[in-house]
Design a protein that fits this description.
This protein has one domain: P-loop containing nucleotide triphosphate hydrolases (Rossmann fold). Helix 3 runs parallel beside helix 5 and helix 5 packs parallel to helix 6. By secondary structure, it is of the alpha/beta class. The radius of gyration is 18 Å and the shape is globular. It comes from Streptomyces gossypii. This is ABC transporter ATP-binding protein. It holds the Pfam family ABC_tran. InterPro entries: AAA+_ATPase, ABC_transporter-like_ATP-bd, ABC_transporter-like_CS, ABC_transpr_LolD-like, MacB-like_ATP-bd, P-loop_NTPase.
Amino acid sequence: MTTAVAHPRTGGSGGRTAVAAAARQVLKAYGSGETRVVALDRVDVDIARGAFTAIMGPSGSGKSTLMHCLAGLDSVSGGQIWVGDQEITSLKDKKLTQLRRDRIGFIFQAYNLLPTLNGLENITLPMDIAGRKPDREWLDRVIETVGLSGRLKHRPNELSGGQQQRVAVARALASRPEIIFGDEPTGNLDSRAGAEVLGFLRRSVDELGQTMVMVTHDPVAASYADRVLYLADGRIVDEMQRPTAEAVLDRMKHFDTFGRVS
């Protein structure tokens, strides 16, 4: 049974929540009895609005599970998840699907672009499906920020891997979601293309006011974030503000390399 817990703290102008997403005593377990596996063990965390948060940990630490629960892609066994001022763990499937569509953006390691659509059509596809017209001024600003102005009429097979991932980034940004989740968003890219995409994610926070949460195993990728959360064995065991790649790598050396569910 889910236990009632406190609403995330509020603040800022107009009483808007100071956090974009929050977990309160979140438990995620699979199976039962001797085969029961705990992926998240009573996790409490706030994701700051307008900031870039990276989530790291060894394989099996629960980092992807935490992101999926925060994004409403996976259910919890106990505790509560908030997106802004909306508690989502009690939402029915239809309402949860609507929330993900309207308030959350996703960027995954696989670009998930439709091969028959050009760059612009792929960017606006979620809004087209929802029957909403994009804010043209915002869309133009997003496209300029990710550097795609000259590639909008090209189909995915005419774009490099880095350019395809930039289309995926622009697609996530285009609907002005409250928060964007990225699961190893540069995992399929070489170091140069990865650095370009990470730079675009960083600029989307600094210049567009976006909230970004990224799961990564890469210390260089994590160094683009404002804050790094470290998970081990289903718990948040440490965090780092204003990380550098060297500091992240050094911190990771202190953690056990075993875990349960990635």
